[in-house]
Specification:
With about 170 residues, the protein is α/β, with parallel strands linked by helices. The protein is about 35% helix and about 25% strand. The strands form two sheets. The protein has a five-stranded parallel beta sheet with strand order 4-3-5-6-7, with helices on both faces. Strands 1-2 form a two-stranded antiparallel sheet.
Length: about 170
């Protein structure tokens, strides 16, 4: 619920909760209309996607659903993906495959090790590692990390195929 509130607030929305004993609880999410609502989303054409060099992307995220969906989307874009369910597992996989990993999608908040701690360790392993920070929270929560030269961007969750295409293509 805390993550949901953060996402709603990041989009300048409201979360209205009403509860009645014996009847249940109702959550209403109220979001402003996007200023770009009438504009079509720019999607890469199959030719543009194929023009990317096939990359190997490491996803480090403690949420299984995020790993599964992001893996599927990246695979559709022709990318190779490996996943880690924790910061420590991500560090170990990066240590083993750092010579072939082109980009890391790193969750900002995870149990045990934070995104900042994982990023610091990845940079110790490989100074020029390329990382995109992902989070359900507003980018301002990652402002210190975003100033790192290794961080190539911020991907807000939940993300769309268009957002994922844009961030991955800009990282190369």
């Amino acid at each position: 619920l805390a993550a949901s509130v953060g996402i709603v607030r990041a989009h300048k929305g409201l979360l209205d909760v009403s509860s009645e004993v014996g009847k249940g609880t109702t959550f209403r999410v109220i979001l402003p209309e996007s200023p770009m609502a009438d504009q079509p989303i720019k999607r890469l054409t199959p030719t543009e996607i194929k023009a990317w060099r096939a990359a190997k992307i490491l996803i480090i995220d403690d949420e299984a659903a995020v790993r599964v969906v992001t893996t599927r989307l990246l695979t559709e874009l022709g990318q190779k993906v490996i996943t880690a369910s924790s910061g420590q597992q991500g560090i170990e996989l990066f240590r083993q495959h750092s010579d072939t990993i082109d980009l890391v999608l790193l969750d900002l908040t995870m149990p045990e090790l934070t995104g900042a701690e994982v990023l610091a360790e990845l940079c110790r392993i490989q100074q020029d590692v390329s990382v995109v920070i992902t989070s359900g929270f507003h980018p301002s929560n990652a402002s210190e990390l975003l100033s790192s030269p290794n961080v190539k961007g911020f991907l807000e969750k939940p993300h769309t195929m268009a957002n994922l295409e844009a961030i991955v293509s800009s990282a190369f």
